[in-house]
């Protein structure tokens, strides 16, 4: 049941002062400005319910609180500033928006070192001073089985830094241009696609170059995956922003909104491999991200629990 694509543990950041981020609104077409006086408490309640659901299904969730003192409105989306990898490797990433750079937390990395086997931490974040950004597993959708990094080109995914990451972590980069129905570039690859063990969710029609579209579809299918071709409308409902996890069984965590957008045939393909786990996060989704963005998977080996002498 367990595969390297579907981690058993995750990091999530609990937002006490949630709001839509004005610094990312210009290029995030999924972001909406719907702030009201009860936005923050509603987001907090959605977060807590999501964590409880994940834990009830057997996923190990490490929760860190963001009290809002650092003015980090997107902190609920930690997958952009760090990632973890088999073999004990951790990467820290440079962020495009200035206020997102404050999301990086030493206490998260210290927990990983304390509870999991970490052999090295490769820190790319200093390259922000050179105007470079590579926003983690938002900018990259990683096939941990085939060792491929799928990337929609954007200013949040610098090509030079991508090549450096792929060389360090042994991934092959597969890049493409993708735009939404309004012709806007896709700001993060993980709103366009998500990869499971036996299937992949992607909107192929948003990749306009026929040759690149064919290449991406072929590479996704190489390891026997079924390619579930989503529509642009389904992408608009965050149907591509999902993550496969391992709990008591293999799961596909996605938002309730995304789940409603899937067709019965698409659901049937997923359910041959994983249980669908819809999480209701409508307030959090106004910030332009969904369930995948909220979850930083831990692909590290857990240290044995110490027993008292």
Automatic annotation (TrEMBL):
Transmembrane stretches, start-end: none
InterPro entries, sorted: Amdntrnsf_FN0238 (IPR014541)
SUPFAM superfamilies membership: Pentein (SSF55909)
Protein name per Swiss-Prot or TrEMBL: Amidinotransferase
Organism from which the protein derives: Ruegeria pomeroyi
């Amino acid at each position: 049941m367990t595969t390297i694509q579907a981690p058993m543990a995750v990091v999530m950041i609990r937002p006490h002062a949630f709001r839509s981020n004005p610094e990312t609104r210009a290029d995030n077409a999924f972001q909406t400005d719907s702030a009201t006086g009860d936005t923050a408490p509603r987001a907090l309640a959605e977060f807590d319910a999501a964590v409880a659901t994940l834990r009830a299904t057997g996923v190990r969730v490490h929760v860190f609180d963001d009290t809002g003192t650092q003015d980090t409105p997107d902190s609920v989306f930690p997958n952009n500033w760090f990632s973890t990898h088999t073999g004990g490797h951790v990467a820290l990433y440079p962020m495009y928006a200035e206020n997102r750079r404050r999301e990086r937390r030493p206490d998260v990395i210290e927990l990983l070192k304390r509870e999991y086997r970490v052999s090295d931490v490769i820190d790319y974040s200093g390259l922000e001073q050179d105007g470079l950004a590579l926003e983690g597993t938002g900018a990259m959708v990683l096939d941990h089985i085939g060792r491929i990094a799928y990337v929609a080109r954007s200013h949040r995914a610098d090509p030079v830094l991508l090549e450096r990451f792929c060389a360090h972590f042994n991934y092959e980069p597969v890049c493409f241009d993708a735009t939404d129905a309004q012709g806007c570039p896709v700001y993060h690859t993980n709103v366009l696609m998500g990869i499971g063990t036996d299937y992949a969710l992607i909107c192929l029609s948003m990749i306009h170059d026929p040759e690149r579209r064919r290449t991406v579809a072929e590479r996704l299918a190489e390891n026997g995956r079924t390619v579930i071709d989503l529509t642009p409308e389904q992408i608009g409902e965050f149907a591509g922003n999902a993550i496969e996890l391992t709990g008591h069984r293999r799961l596909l965590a996605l938002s309730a909104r995304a789940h409603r957008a899937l067709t019965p045939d698409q659901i049937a393909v997923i359910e041959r491999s994983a249980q669908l786990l819809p999480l209701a996060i409508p307030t959090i989704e106004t910030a332009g991200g969904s369930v995948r963005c909220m979850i930083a998977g831990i692909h590290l080996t857990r240290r044995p629990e110490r027993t008292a002498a």
